[in-house]
TrEMBL record:
Gene3D superfamilies: 3.30.530.20. It comes from the Bacteria. Transmembrane segments: none annotated. Residues 25-158, 189-323 form the Activator of Hsp90 ATPase homologue 1/2-like C-terminal domain. This is ATPase. Belongs to the AHA1 family. Coiled coil: none annotated. Pfam families: AHSA1. It comes from Microbacterium oryzae.
Amino acid sequence: MPVTSVVSDPHALTVTLVADFPVGPERLWKAFTDPRQLERFWGPPGYPATFGAFDLRPGGIADYAMTSPRGEVSRGRWEFTKVSDPSSFEVIDTFVDDSGDAMDMPASRTEFAFTGTDGGGRVTSTTHFTSVEALEQLTAMGMIEGLTMGVNQLDIVLRDLREYAQSRGAELEILDDQHVRITRVIRGPRELVWRAHFEPELMQKWLLGPDGWTMPVCETSTEVGGTYRYEWEPAPGVEGERFGFEGEVLHVEPGRRAVTTERMIGMPDGPTTINDLSLYEEDGVTLLTQLIEYPDAATRDMILETGMVDGMEASYARMEALVLA
């Protein structure tokens, strides 16, 4: 992982994070100061940020919102106090409500510094707090874990997606006991990849796992509160039994993000997962990210051991051929 250290110092009232990347400081500066790149990693998995105003100058303001898998929104505001292109910038980070007014929560001051290393570049983030109580309150809210997981997502932002797509299939990352992330670059535009996930006549052509299976039932929804139902069965001569999944739509950002629950049909007391699909397009190719939340590590391992990722890769390869066509 890119993050190499996180140090909380209650005497200095600081939290300092260090992360190393195989690119120079100028490229890192761009990732942190281009809002379209920043929102791809600012926020832990499952809580992506969306930046609105972004006025990169002393006294300028950047507004952002982080949306949970169930659609809850947490808002914040950066006020830029120092900007030294391309080596550093400093912000006052404040919690705000839906009206943009500051909330009764501790604000903090953070400096982001970008320096060169023998292998590329380094990001050093130093957050200053007004009191031990403020440091402890924000730490208890998960600030350190969220910052670490967010910055660890930057490595994929720095990749050239078209080059990255040449030699890789679906990739699995185990994030913690409950969460895994699966990424796959599809050589096709985001609009078509989105349609391929929600139009039944397209889904029934690619969402099949290994060869020899069909999808006779494909009921979809893109409305929050709506439900879906998918069923598969083996073709004659192929081993296996009919099975399916059903669930509810929790959150939708059309063309960009969809969050659903998932449980096996016929197992009302079985485990339910939360599947968080997001799509990002660059230079005509689409990065597909599937964040899956399991009830516990045992359920996670049981499902992964079924060969789920291999089945997903077979389906994605089939879908990519469909999208390219």
